[in-house]
Amino acid sequence: MTTSTMPTEITEILENPARRLLLKGSAGAVAALGIMSLTPFVRAEELSSLPGYASWKRKQDLILHSEATMETRRNAIRSGIVTPSETLFVRNNLPAPDASIVADPDAWEVRFEGVNDPRTLTLGELKKIDVQTVASVLQCSGNGRAFFPHGASGTQWSVGAAGCVVWTGVPLKAVIDTLGGPSGGAKFITGTGGEEIPDGLDAKEVMVERSVPLEVMERVLLAWELNDDPIPIAHGGPLRMVVPGFYGVNNVKYVKYVALTENESNAKIQVSGYRVRDVGVSGAPDQPSMWEMNIKSWITLPLDTTEQGRNMLYGVALGGTRTVDKVEVSVDDGETWQEAELLGPDLGPYAWRPFVLATELSPGEYRIVSRATDVEGNSQPEARMDNERGYGHNGWRDHGVTVTVS
Amino acid sequence: MTTSTMPTEITEILENPARRLLLKGSAGAVAALGIMSLTPFVRAEELSSLPGYASWKRKQDLILHSEATMETRRNAIRSGIVTPSETLFVRNNLPAPDASIVADPDAWEVRFEGVNDPRTLTLGELKKIDVQTVASVLQCSGNGRAFFPHGASGTQWSVGAAGCVVWTGVPLKAVIDTLGGPSGGAKFITGTGGEEIPDGLDAKEVMVERSVPLEVMERVLLAWELNDDPIPIAHGGPLRMVVPGFYGVNNVKYVKYVALTENESNAKIQVSGYRVRDVGVSGAPDQPSMWEMNIKSWITLPLDTTEQGRNMLYGVALGGTRTVDKVEVSVDDGETWQEAELLGPDLGPYAWRPFVLATELSPGEYRIVSRATDVEGNSQPEARMDNERGYGHNGWRDHGVTVTVS
Region (Disordered): which ranges (chains A, B) (predicted)? Predict the structure, then answer.
């Protein structure tokens, strides 16, 4: 195995440790990455307890895919408008840094480039510039990957690589204004994570560095609070670049470098990673990047069985960057639809809306599906859009549940 | 001591156990009430750990006044849109029932009267009627009592007998409709708590039974979830009658009886308790009852000291039943005011809004105060309204903080 081929496999190992067993000669790479905790990475079937950096999570709410990937159980959401941090999924692209970086959060430093007055600011200084609080869905690009029949590689997320959380931080725009504005020619916001790069690996091959279009700057936050508490290390504390409405990977954890750039990052995670392409095709820069989330919904209750008679069918719906206008629910796999009620306060266009439909069910087996529509009329498609890595799945048919009524 | 005089003192003991030391001959009454846990009631200065029924709370966020009264620290709120259950204040009028009542919540029974089809329904049945989610401030009538100079009896709450939480339950209106509607002549909604009445006491003297005007029925919930989790025993689970915008006492815990009634309850807590009257006057039915909350705000950060230069002043503001329109902040005890920014999503008219004001402070001592105004133009008054029990304090002057800038 050469160094140049190693990182691809390492990425796969990190996303799906079970695949490690299929890889030959990767022992060195695995050892190099076993720095997240004292125990080496463990494959899903063996993982029975939460890793140290996430030990404060509610284990009963999570499916432990690996030490770096923990999925929120479908039944742990019910009708919650905000997902508790203890229940929120975890997905790390690299082993999390040592928790010592959140011990004195205000001392955390971020370098800003691509502005007229490039500078390094501490989190303590950022906190004094301005502050904003935004509710936003955090969702992994591969949420729903488990439904692809071609066996898309990566963590086999069902619906639980998503949560609706509240971020508090400084608007990036206010920071950029403080630093004299863009220095010219900028087309992207590029954020770099503060993870340690394992020895012997090429940083560009494994680092988390993502670029998003400059047009979304108005909504980007450099956030220090998740659900009104300091962001824990498992979720990117002490500081995370939050791009509301964009897939999880763009929300760079432990952000240590923010630049306004003319080009997208040349890190692998940007160049060929998180690119939507046909099955069997390699990732490349000319393919769509996993930026803006699409409209999506799923049922959260009931899941397997329920009793005959009146039933309340619950779920959640998100519009990505657009407010959800309505959600329809079908108990006959899409033959007929009924409009559900949206539940609770509207936390804004980036948040999700719980919904509920009251309906009568007689004994039998039901395929219950949901379909959301946003204020601009965009609806979920029926089918999945097959793609190599199983990204961005929002087809309503696959996201349904089969419930036996007795 | 006669039985008829005992309950008044018991109420005082429950609200402020330190007063127990001042009472003569009350040992029997205290013993009769020592059923909340295995340890007897302990006065504030001695309470060093959370009582069993609230052992899951964040102790560092709370001031432990007594086993029945725990206040959220002013610095535990910061800019939170929703107060975590672990941080929410606790105030019980009677010892909490045994936690066994939340073990099988769906079996909890509630009797409905004053309707055309009076019936007993289980929580499981209520859950199938309808569901709604509402964000609402929960606040004790005596929040701010500590600021009254006449030494109003009861727990000496500062600002922390309040939190903004999310309730999920069935709209009472939907239940009443299911039961054939009001049976006629109803002017009040009367809810009765499921606490056990200690032996030897007259139930009407100590029971928690509150009546609120029928006009608010549209907003009343019978709630089974607090912040998207089943309501814990400390907060009235398995079922609580929630009246958004009304003071805490009207939100009857462990509700076991709901009636539409022509008259208000004849329980002491309604007849003479929670009545606003002049200092030295006894409670009576012709005085205003502690129903609707008034507009109020307070600073949450900084509190004691801060550094010179640019500072972010945080706080929260609630409008009771009306949306907060604006909050002004003064750093010179009300001489001059600046308008603050409201932070985060608006969770509706019953929720609070965090606010922030960025300002420059040079070394010195500052009295920082805040003043909220609702969409109908109602503003906080400057002064407290003196009243016997120290209820409903929303004067801005007393709620300020004195901060030393160095």
Answer: 377-397
Angle at alpha carbon of residue B270, lines to B155 and B236, rounded to 5°? 65
Q: What is the CATH number of domain A77-271?
A: 3.90.420.10
| B346 has a chain A CB within 8 A of its CB | yes
Sign of CA dihedral B161, B162, B163, B165: positive
Segment B48-58, tens digit of pLDDT: 899 999 999 99
Residues A387 and A402: their CA atoms lie apart, in Å, by 25
Of A79, A133, A309, the CB nearest to B168: A79
Q: Is B344 within 8 Å of A135 when comparing Cβ atoms?
A: yes
- Best of B133, B346, B356 to substitute, by most chain A Cβ atoms within 10 angstroms, is B133
SS3 A173: helix
- Quick one: DSSP state of residue A300? E
Q: Do B79 and A132 touch (CB under 8 A)?
A: no
B84 vs A343: CB contact, 8 Å cut-off? Answer: no
Q: Which residue of A has its CA nearest to B360?
A: A128
Which residues does A37 contact at the CB level (< 8 Å), separation at least 6? A51, A52, A53, A67, A95
Half-sphere exposure of residue A381: CA atoms within 13 angstroms, side-chain side = 9
Give the span between the Cα atoms of A299 and A186, in whole angstroms. Answer: 42
Asked if A135 has any chain B CB less than 8 Å from its own CB, the reply is yes
Whether B308 has its CB under 8 Å from any CB of chain A: the answer is no
Tell me what pLDDT residue B13 has.
Answer: 39
**A282 vs chain B: nearest CA distance in angstroms?**
41
A119: amino acid identity, one letter: R
How confident is the model at residue B8, as a pLDDT? 39
Distance CA(A193)–CA(A208), nearest Å, equals 5
The closest of A169, A146, A173, A149 to A157, measured between CA atoms, is A146
What are the residues facing A274 on neighbouring strands? none
CA distance B399 to B298: 6
CATH numeric code, B6-271: 3.90.420.10
pLDDT at A198: 86
DSSP line for B34-46: TTSSSSPP--GGG
Class of domain B296-405: mainly beta
Q: Are B266 and B277 in contact (CB under 8 A)?
A: no
Query: Are A131 and B312 an interchain contact pair (Cβ–Cβ within 8 Å)?
Result: yes
Tell me which chain B residues have a C-beta less than 8 angstroms from the C-beta of A86: none
Chain B contacts of A356, Cβ < 8 Å?
131
Distance from the A209 Cα atom to the nearest Cα atom in chain B, whole angstroms: 28
Give tens-digit pLDDT for B275-315.
999 999 999 999 999 999 999 999 999 999 999 999 999 99
CB A368, CB A299: distance < 8 Å: yes
Residues 51 through 110 of chain B touching chain A, CB cutoff 8 Å = 78-82, 84
Same topology, domains A77-271 and A296-405? Answer is no
Strand partners, B148: none
Percent of chain B at pLDDT > 70 equals 89
Residue B90 dihedral angles phi and psi, to the nearest 5° = -125, 135
**Domain range list for chain A:** 77-271, 296-405
